[in-house]
Amino acid sequence: MKILLVGGGGREHAIAESLAKSSHCPKVYCVSELINPGIRKIVSSGGGEYFRGDTNDPSAVVGAALRCSPDFVFVGPEEPNFHGIPDALEDKGIPCIGASKEVAELELSKASMRDLQWKYKIPGRLWYKKFKTFEEAVPYIEEYAESIALKPARQAGGKGVKVIEDFQVYLQDDKRKVKKEHAESIVNEYMKGYDDIEYKLLIEERVWGPEYTVQCFTDGRTVVPMPAVQDNKHAFDGDLGPETGGMGSISCCMNLRYGVEDERAVITEGEYQRSAEIVKMMIDAIQRETGKKYHGISAGQMMLTSVWGPTVIEMYSRLGDPEAANVLTMLKTDLVDICEAIICEDLNKVKVEFEDQAVAVKAVCPEGYPDRRDLAKGHPVSISAPSNSGGILWASAEDTGNGVVTGGSRVVECIGTGDTLPEASARAEELCMGVGLSDGWKLFHRSDIGTEKSILRRIQLGNMAREIYQYRERKGLLGKRMIWIPGKGLMEVG
Questions:
Q1: Cα separation, 295 vs 79, whole angstroms
Q2: H/E segment holding residue 75
Q3: Among 10, 64, 136, 359, which residue's Cβ finds the most Cβ atoms within 10 Å?
Q4: What are the structural domains, with CATH classification, of the chain?
């Protein structure tokens, strides 16, 4: 059996390792812009081949596939989905685990995702407005009386999202100025170069609560949810600093418990099930809209809010990064069997199982990330980590043949496992300590991910949101709220 993997980051290294463990003993091939040292080792040891190429270019990916004649292709990142890589492969008769361009619209356009959610009255929907220009948005930014979230209307690698609160009345004029400046930067900077989407800016109501991601396998008929994972976007300890692609993630059992034998959890089993059902409803809706089957991964980045309980923040058309490391570490079922079932549309016949364990992932990054990736690039990497504490995934790193250098983003992702999240966090921390740059350039990582203080704070936040939304549910008010809309006044939405 031969499998071609598209992409060369930490997520794809996790996928390659999971595929290589299969009882089918597949030859793994890969195509990516950088030569990932971890994936290269897997490819070489199995007798495969590594192709350097643009993963967003259908001709490059199809060309690599025609050279190795794989049984199927597994697409890792989101951008190849947006550029129609799965479509181009299947046009050539090559099966693909990846969302076709039309169904990947769920992730590509946050505006389209919200449109779909409201059209089909899917629970967990937020009030929103979409804009083609900055000027159209100004009246809403100036007049909106409540807190808002400003977002690029397209998936932009987690960049550009900003929540601005209006609690201090005496600062409202300053905050209006900040809102307008950031909205303008979204349109002119974060959305620059994206010509595949009509709307540029999204304004959403601000909600609060713990975030988590529920990723699912789907063959277009059956949806199989994976364990909930909580990503940590902010660069520094205490959830401070700029937002990144993800500084690390935690998981334990299916619903983010403190520990395997501990009943304390960020979300309840019922909330987990409701979140998975929302993801299924979104998949069903996009399939009805497009007439296309969804073969691959879909995920809901969720928040447990006081308004709805499980609430959709964004949708993904692929595994998250670093969330993939969590779920694939826990996966007991052969990933190749799952992929073949997706292709044949008989996923319902496969029993997909996961280990009950805690997993903490911590990304190690060079200084300069995320805002000055040019400064974070080209530094030689050295690793002297113990081999008995978990695993290390290579992420943004280039195997030059004479050593490994940084690629400008997260260098490695360190995986710790245990019976509790603090135990897994300590093991991941030990691995982080063994990563260095031999030219003296500094590295940083989040030491607090999965620690007792961090997880208990998230459990407490979940309890607060739960108390309010369950009260609203008992009163028949779930999802209903009053929103001030410029030109229309106070209106009930829900």
A1: 16
A2: strand 72-75
A3: 10
A4: 2-105 (3.40.50.20), 127-206 (3.30.1490.20), 211-452 (3.30.470.20)
